[in-house]
Amino acid sequence: METKKMGSAILFGVGAIFIFAIVISFIFSLILRFSSLTESSLTYVMMAMTFISLFIGGFISGGKGKKQGWMLGGGTGILYTAIILLFQYLGHDSSFSAKEWIYHGCFIATSMMGGILGVNLSGGNK
User: Fold this and answer.
1) CB neighbours (10 Å) of residue 61?
2) What is the model's pTM?
3) pLDDT tens digits, residue range 79-120?
4) Which of 9, 45, 60, 83 has its CA 20 to 30 A from that of 75?
5) How far apart are CA 20 and CA 100, in angstroms?
6) Strand, helix or coil for residue 97
7) Neighbours of 90 (CB within 10 A)
8) Are the CB atoms for 114 and 57 separated by under 8 Å?
9) Cα separations (Å) of 57 from 11, 31, 80, 115, 126?
10) pLDDT, tens digit, for every residue of 36-58?
11) Rounded Cα distance, 101 and 50, in Å
C-alpha cells in the first residue's frame, strides 16, 4: 500500500509538470505569434518556467505523499527526465548532450527541493 501511495504521488507530480508545461507553452506560443519577440529572446524565461514547473511537480508529489519528500521529488524529476530522454531518443534518434544531462540533474535537484517543501507544508511526518 505504501509503495502504491508513493507511486501515485509521483505520477500526480509528473502530470502536474506536463500540464503546467502545456499551459506555459501555449502562452509563449501566443506571445511569439502576436508580438515581435523571437524564441531566442525568451530562452531564459522558458528555462525559468521549466524549473518552476519541476519545483511545483515535486511540491505536489511531496504534498500528496506526506513523507519522504526528497525521494518523492527525486522520483518525480527522474521520471520526467526518463520520459524526455525516451521521447528524444525514440522520436528524434539522439541522446542527451552533456549540457542537457547537467540541466536534467538540476531539474531533479529542483524537484527534490519541491518535494521536501511539499511534505513540510502539508504537515507530513518529518
Assistant:
1) 34
2) 0.88
3) 999 999 999 888 777 788 899 999 999 999 999 999 999 998
4) 45
5) 21
6) coil
7) 8
8) yes
9) 9, 24, 10, 8, 20
10) 888 888 889 999 999 999 999 99
11) 15
Length of the chain: 126
> 1: burial class by Cβ within 10 Å (0-12, 13-18, 19+)?
exposed
Q: Which residue has the cell 504534498?
A: 63
Place of cell 531518443: 89
Instruction: Give, in order, the Cα–Cα distances in Å from 37 to each of 2, 21, 32, 52.
Output: 48, 20, 6, 22
Residue 12: all three cell numbers together: 500526480
How far apart (Å, rounded) are the C-alpha atoms in residues 89 and 76?
20
What CA–CA distance (Å, rounded) separates 13 from 86? Answer: 19
